[in-house]
Amino acid sequence: MVVVMEQAARASEVAALVAKVESMGFRVHLMKGEERTLVGVVGDGRPLDRGQIEAMPGVDKTLAVLRPFKLASREMHPEDSLIALNGSKVGGKKVAVIAGPCSVESRSQLLETAHAVAQAGATALRGGAFKPRTSPYSFQGLGVEGLELLAEAREETGLPIVTEAMAPEQIPLVAQHADVIQIGARNMQNFNLLQAAGKAGLPVLLKRGMMATIEEWLMAAEYILSQDNPQVILCERGIRTFEPSTRYTTDINAVPAVKSLSHLPLILDPSHGTGNWEYVTAVARAGIAAGADGLIVEVHPRPQEARSDGAQSLRPEVFEELVRQVSQVAVAVGREGPIRP
Ligand code: PEP
Ligand code: MN
């Protein structure tokens, strides 16, 4: 339920309401808007006497939140959420472009990529130090050394770091080096990991599971939000369909659907969505045209030598062109690109 306070409600009236609701065993999430305060009330499904709440001083009305994902829902939080990322914001007018290699492979590979994407206008640097690989014999990432290299790349370029944690016990280490914790598609329903990431207090980039419905994805976001961490960025990265000619199928429909159901920012991953570098720029343009708040794109200085996802990685000059084109599309749909087109 959302309790809408009167425009003239006093702070003491809001505090009295919060105390009352908490004493009844419900959790409260305060949202102070420009004009009025909304109080989100979340419980375990037990009914709450709306008449009793509406009778309290300063309360205008109550609204039921019908969706099972309460904190993630737009019913609960009508305004778009903005997530601060090192001076810029994800979810605002300006679209964000996170770029970098699939995996951190070496110091020279990472720094070369980091400088190139920074130069092209990227908002943040991505790179996996812990890699979820289908085969146990494939490169699993450099681990701690990879995290240290990412921190060094941030020092050199000023770009904030987005990197994946695969297990709850990795969270403290990842949080020490990262600006955003990525939860991979294969871990979208690893509920212990979601709760641990939520507790770290950093923004969390939550990828959609390859076989997850939008509702399951938003329920996964709810696990993070319910740790009192409002900083969740959703990432559509393609789902499994019957179509084998691309790696996954980018669910463009998910962009307007999620923007309508949720206040959380949503970015698109055209690299994993297509699996083919030749399709990445076109799908990136489509994502921004459809209303995504940004992109996450794999870039490698020598894709043919990449230890993971080389086939979908862009060479730096191709990435630069992607940023140019995406910036034009952003302007065409009333947004701003990472660069002035
Ligand atoms: C990645 O970002 O490199 C990755 C492994 O992505 P996903 O979890 O979407 O497969
Ligand atoms: Mn990858």
Characterization of this structure:
It is elongated and about 65 Å long. The strands form three sheets. An eight-stranded parallel barrel has the order 7-8-9-10-11-12-13-14, surrounded by seven helices. The protein is an alpha/beta fold. It has helices spanning 11-23, 50-54, 107-120, 144-157, 171-177, 191-199, 214-225, 254-261, 270-274, 277-290, 316-332, and strands spanning 2-5, 27-32, 37-42, 59-63, 83-85, 88-90, 96-100, 124-126, 161-164, 180-183, 204-207, 232-236, 266-268, 294-298. It is built from eleven helices and 14 strands. The site of manganese (II) ion (MN) has 5 residues, from loops.
Keywords:
341 residues; alpha/beta; 11 helices; 14 strands; binds phosphoenolpyruvate; binds manganese (II) ion
> How much of the residues is beta strand, in percent?
15-25%
Range of helix content: 25-40%
Largest sheet: 8 strands, parallel, barrel
Rounded mean pLDDT is 96
What is the radius of gyration?
21 Å
| Separation, N- and C-terminal Cα atoms | 44 Å
Bound molecules: phosphoenolpyruvate, manganese (II) ion
Strand order of the largest sheet: 7-8-9-10-11-12-13-14
DSSP strand tally: 14
Count of separate DSSP helical elements: 11
Low-pLDDT sequence parts: none
SSE sequence, one letter per element:
EHEEHEEEEHEHEHEHEHEHEHHEH
User: What would the principal axes of the Cα set say about the shape?
Assistant: elongated
Oligomeric form: single chain
Structural class: alpha/beta
